Amino acid sequence: MKDIQAIRGRHYIQSLVAEGEHERQDFKFSISDARKIARSVSAFANTSGGRLLIGVKDNGELAGVRNEEDIYVVEQAAQRYCRPEVEVEFTAFRVDEHKIIIRASIPQVAVRPVRCQEPDGRWRAYTRVADENIVAHPLMVRTWLADAPVSFSLDSTSSALLELLDSNPGGMEVADIAIALGVSQRRAENLIVSLASAGVVGFVYRSQKFLIARGE
Q1: CB burial string 42-80: b at 16+ within 10 A, e below
Q2: pTM
Q3: Which of 28, 60, 133, 179 is the one with CA 20 to 30 A from 14?
Q4: What is the rounded distance in angstroms from the CA atom of residue 129 to the CA atom of residue 134?
């Protein structure tokens, strides 16, 4: 299989499957859509890295890889539909005489964002939240694009924003922050990017939307 020598690993794979799907792991029974898989590659690369277990059903059943083309589709996703390209490492594990599971390991990249091409031709960056691939918030992408932490002075508006987030620990939407501070949306966005780049505030995903919250 693509010159990959399978190694014995039933207990190892079972231990991974027992973890379920989470921020760093996804099950794939089979793979046919390179663009869809590119979202997973982008999300893992932009977050903390992760792995696809190919040949594992959503319920955790070890079904085995049905077609070695699955590997080529993942490679196509990472190289053709991700920008910049992402290097994926494949390891084959034999779980019984007739079944092989492929672990596709995707590293966390040093320089974000990794964007993937959607069917409509647009390029989007994804992030991994629990077991989902979520389109990254535009301000999150702006923060990633900063080569170095954006310098800022803790002026009265910055202090007011931090106090506002301290009093709303669950996080706030950007529009609500702008209104509460009495500043323009653009001013609020620039301030958030500045503070996020410095690690003072961050992005949390709740109720299917990103919120701005104090950094840890």
Answers
A1: bbbbbbeebbbbbbbeeeeebbbbeeeebbebbbbbbbe
A2: 0.93
A3: 133
A4: 7
